[in-house]
Amino acid sequence: MDALRRALGWLSLLYALIFLSFGLQHAGIAFGPVREPVIVPAAIMETLCAGAMFAGAYGVLARRAWAWDGLIYSHAAALGGVLMGILALALGAGPSSALLSWYHSVIAVLLAAGLAGSFYASRVRGATAPGSAGSGGTAPASADGGAWAPGFGDSEATTPGSADSRRPRRRGPR
After folding, report:
1. Per-residue pLDDT tens for 116-154?
2. For residues 137 and 131, what is the distance between their CA atoms, to the nearest angstrom?
3. Which candidate, 39, 103, 36, 115, places its Cα nearest to that of 78?
4. Residue 132 contacts residue 36 (beta carbons within 8 Å)
5. HEC profile for the chain?
6. Within 10 A of 6 (CB to CB), how many other CB atoms are there?
7. What are the φ and ψ backbone dihedral angles of 31, each rounded to 5 degrees?
8. Is the pTM above the cut of 0.90?
9. Burial, 137: exposed, middle or buried (Cβ in 10 Å; 0-12, 13-18, 19+)?
10. Which positions ≥6 away from 120 have C-beta within 8 Å?
11. Measured between alpha carbons, how far is 153 from 139 in angstroms, rounded to an integer?
């Protein structure tokens, strides 16, 4: 999971920079020969998507407790923004270019894959958390000596309706 976490974190950071660069282009700032039409709503949306992706990347790379949820929310928010951009261009709401069409389609696929990876990782972590059914009672060891595994964005996974799901799990000596 640690390799997937790092990969998704660095990819989120890359996506944030890509969103930021296209947001600046839609605000009228050209990068060399690459110019995009000025579309203010697109600049706003891409800046918001960049902020969401930066937040998700920060949570994962800084190992915050909310990191897996942050990745899911940031990928979902950015994917929603990209789909709104695709819909706006399809309805003729603004000028389009070949680069813009290519960008929207590629980033949508990448964000959907990142969202799927985030869901997969959060689901697998929940199934292997201490005390869950099928985990054998222990969490998988991580590459950093186990400091990453406990409490990373997931509550203790239990079977709904079981005795463990109704009372908080105690940690440490009694």
Report:
1. 998 888 777 665 544 444 444 344 444 444 444 434 444
2. 5
3. 115
4. no
5. CHHHHHHHHHHHHHHHHHHHHHHHHHCCCCECCECCCCCHHHHHHHHHHHHHHHHHHHHHHCCCCCHHHHHHHHHHHHHHHHHHHHHHHHCCCCCCCHHHHHHHHHHHHHHHHHHHHHHHHHHHHHHCCCCCCCCCCCCCCCCCCCCCCCCCCCCCCCCCCCHHHHCCCCCCCC
6. 13
7. -110, 95
8. no
9. exposed
10. none
11. 14
Question: Which residue type sits at 43?
Answer: A
14-69: pLDDT as tens digits: 999 999 999 999 998 988 888 888 889 999 999 999 999 999 999 999 999 888 89
Q: Tell me the residue length of the chain.
A: 174
